[in-house]
Amino acid sequence: MAALTVPYTKHMSLPVGSFLKIKGTPTMSFSKNPQLQVDFHTEHKDDSDIAFHFRVYFNSCVVMNSRQCGNWKEEVKTSVMPFKDGQPFELGILVLPKEYQIIVNGCQSYTFPHRIDPKFVKMIQVWRDVTLTSVNIA
Predict the structure, then answer these.
(1) What is the per-residue pLDDT for 1?
(2) What are the backbone dihedrals phi and psi of residue 42, each rounded to the nearest 5 degrees, phi first?
(3) Sheet of strand 130-137, all strands in order from the earlier edge strand to the far edge
(4) What does the alpha-carbon distance between residue 88 and residue 124 come to, in Å, rounded to a whole number?
(5) Is it true that the peptide bond before 7 is cis, omega within 30 degrees of 0?
(6) Which of 20, 29, 46, 65 qualifies as a FRET site for 40, CA 20 to 30 Å off?
(7) How far is CA 3 from each of CA 72, 81, 106, rounded to the nearest angstrom?
(8) What CA–CA distance (Å, rounded) separates 41 from 106?
(9) Long-range contacts (CB closer than 8 Å, 24 or more residues apart) made by 66-69
(10) Whole-prediction pTM value?
(11) Strand-pair partners of 128
């Protein structure tokens, strides 16, 4: 299967009950500090509010946040790192009534409470130092 273009941008809605599945591989060794970023935008433009921001610093931590009225809110940071150096990953994001549930390689790894109702999500963007093989919504 051909790799998807990165940054990968898709106009879509993410109602409660939807499941976003992203498959990819970091493009470099964790020692070179690669990153993965997933953003759920509320408009069809890069500078819009972000209902959910998920950023993996593969060598150290994961940061989750939201951007409202152009301002970043309080970030949630964790050193839990289920991603493996040099290995493909499967990242799933389940939209629940009160939070996002983040599943990495089949294991529930993180949660993030809704700060902006997911019904306002209109675009997703997946980017940084990754090769993507698929991005699907169910």
Answers:
(1) 64
(2) -90, -5
(3) 107-113, 99-104, 89-95, 19-26, 130-137
(4) 21
(5) yes
(6) 29
(7) 31, 24, 22
(8) 25
(9) 66/115, 66/116, 68/115, 68/116
(10) 0.97
(11) 36
- Residue 2: its pLDDT value, please? 79
- What's at 15, amino acid-wise? P
Secondary structure of 66-111 as H, E, C letters: EEECCEECCCEEECCCCCCCCCCEEEEEEECCCEEEEEECCEEEEE
Residue with structure tokens 């289920």?
Answer: 82
Contacts of 55 (CB under 8 A, 6+ apart): 35, 36, 37, 38, 62, 63, 64, 65, 128
Instruction: Please give the C-alpha separations between residue 22 and each of 91, 125, 133, in angstroms, as whole numbers.
Output: 5, 11, 8
d(CA 70, CA 17): 27
